[in-house]
Design a protein that fits this description.
Blueprint: H1 2-21, H2 29-47, H3 50-63, H4 69-76, H5 82-94, H6 101-109, H7 116-127, H8 132-139, H9 147-159, H10 165-174, H11 183-193, H12 199-207, H13 213-226, H14 232-237, H15 244-254, H16 261-267, H17 273-285, H18 292-301, H19 305-318, H20 321-332, H21 339-352, H22 354-368, H23 375-385, H24 394-401, H25 406-418, H26 425-431, H27 438-450
Helix pairs in contact: 3-5, 4-5, 5-7, 6-7, 7-9, 9-11, 10-11, 11-13, 12-13, 13-15, 15-17, 16-17, 17-19, 18-19, 18-20, 19-21, 20-21, 20-22, 21-22, 21-23, 23-25, 24-25, 25-27, 26-27
């Protein structure tokens, strides 16, 4: 799709030049190629065998190409191949095409005539185009014995925004015919609806020690999504529950409440790593400056690397200098850290504090430039090559181009291209020569086209 867009932009410029000069210009090879591709795809959609059409629909979906929507809809409306219908609906959902609502609705209304994959594609499509009429059709699926279809219908109802469906979902939860495996999905849907009318029953489920564990987890999570003030005390009381998984869900829920900061800070001391991880994530999302000291401790000392990484991420989001100072120290002490923890510290510094952290990063680059272990330099190189609006990295990009590693060279080229550093054009021109590896030449030539 990016290639097609580039061709279209080129053609627009060409046509503008034609109009400006009043002269005649023959069709370009690029325009001929675009038209040939369009005709070829049109022919496949109209006349191709099913496998060809399915392959093309997969390609169009990956490209997010909306150009053939009307033709695909026409073909999907008359084919008997349900795989094609499902693929068409998946494409329409991907490109946000609203014109297939009647097709999808008809499938749901006649659900006994269709296989599960096409029904699930229809539900997913309608979820992006919710109307009361669609919702009424989907409600008929809540009695299905097909668990996959039931779960898809529950998910749709959770997204429909209709407060009347709170009662529908609560009744479904209490119905003895509802499979136990579907009940967590019902609770999650109640949270997604977001109406306080469900809070009382959800609280009862969350605090009931005789309820199935998964039901308690999802009830707590749903309470957090709804955010009804009266549920906070009940959730807070569950932080001492013996079920560590429940505590992790409760921490996630409490983190959504304005008054939950103290609870989250205390949860960083929990013995179960998932609780600490959830607390660190929530504190980062809310930018809790009061949590900086304990997050620094967790980043340096937590026994679980994934908790350390989440604490590092939180410090970046909060943005206090003492947090960045700690991360710079960790980045420079790379020999004493697990590689994943070091990588997270560097990533956060580059994302949130590149200017101030540049001396520390340059020091690591200099120390690793001639080293035998490519891990550290490769990681920094990849991150810096993706950094836009950073022309002050020109010296580093130039240094990368002098490295013997093909990968490091390409990182330097890409960084210069992304930041439009024309001062490195001559060096990139050298790398585009035949004496260089093919992958380096290709990267250099692409960069020269854009500089």
């Amino acid at each position: 799709m990016a290639r097609l867009d580039g061709i279209k932009n080129w053609l627009s410029a060409l046509l503008g030049l034609v109009l400006l000069l009043g002269g005649g210009v023959s069709l370009s090879g690029e325009e001929d190629e675009l038209e040939r591709l369009r005709r070829e795809r049109t022919d496949i959609l109209q006349f191709g065998i099913d496998s060809e059409v399915l392959s093309l629909l997969t390609t169009l979906r990956a490209e997010k190409t909306p150009e053939f929507n009307e033709l695909i809809l026409e073909q999907a409306s008359k084919t008997v191949n349900q795989d094609l219908v499902a693929a068409a609906l998946d494409l329409f959902k991907e490109v946000n095409f609203a014109g297939a609502q009647e097709l999808a609705l008809g499938i749901i209304q006649d659900y006994n005539q269709y296989r599960t994959p096409v029904l699930l594609s229809g539900l997913a499509y309608l979820k992006s185009h919710v109307t009361p009429r669609h919702t009424q059709a989907v409600l008929a699926l809540l009695g299905s014995s097909n668990e996959a279809l039931l779960l898809g219908a529950i998910d749709y109802v959770g997204s429909c925004g209709d407060e009347n469906q709170v009662v529908t979902l609560l009744d479904l939860y209490e119905d003895s015919r509802t499979p136990e495996n579907a009940k967590p999905a019902v609770l999650s849907a109640l949270g997604n609806l977001g109406f306080p009318a469900a809070s009382e029953r959800l609280t009862e489920i969350a605090v009931d020690p005789y309820e199935r564990a998964a039901n308690r987890w999802y009830a707590a999570q749903a309470l957090g999504k709804i955010g009804e003030a009266g549920a906070f005390t009940a959730l807070q009381g569950l932080l001492g529950d013996p079920d560590p998984n429940l505590r992790s869900y409760v921490v996630e829920a409490v983190g959504r409440y304005p008054q939950g900061e103290d609870v989250l800070i205390e949860a960083l001391r929990d013995s179960f790593w998932r609780v600490r991880l959830s607390a660190a994530r929530q504190l980062g999302e809310r930018g809790s400056e009061r949590a900086v000291d304990i997050l620094i401790y967790k980043a340096k000392n937590d026994p679980e690397n994934n908790v350390r990484n989440e604490a590092i991420s939180a410090l970046g989001k909060i943005g206090r200098q003492e947090g960045f100072e700690t991360l710079r120290e960790m980045a420079e002490a790379r020999a004493t850290l697990a590689p994943a923890v070091w990588a997270q510290a560097v990533q956060v510094l580059i994302q949130y504090d590149l200017r101030s952290s540049l001396p520390a990063i340059e020091k690591i680059i200099d120390e690793e430039f001639a080293g035998n272990n490519p891990y550290f330099l490769n990681h920094i190189g990849r991150l810096l090559s993706e950094k836009a609006d950073a022309p002050y990295l020109a010296d580093i990009y130039g240094k990368f181009m002098d490295h013997p590693s093909l990968i490091i060279k390409i990182y330097g080229i890409r960084g210069a291209e992304l930041n439009q550093i024309t001062g490195l054009r001559s060096r990139i021109t050298e790398l585009s020569g035949e004496a260089n590896h093919l992958s380096v030449r290709q990267a250099a030539r692409r960069a020269l086209e854009n500089l």
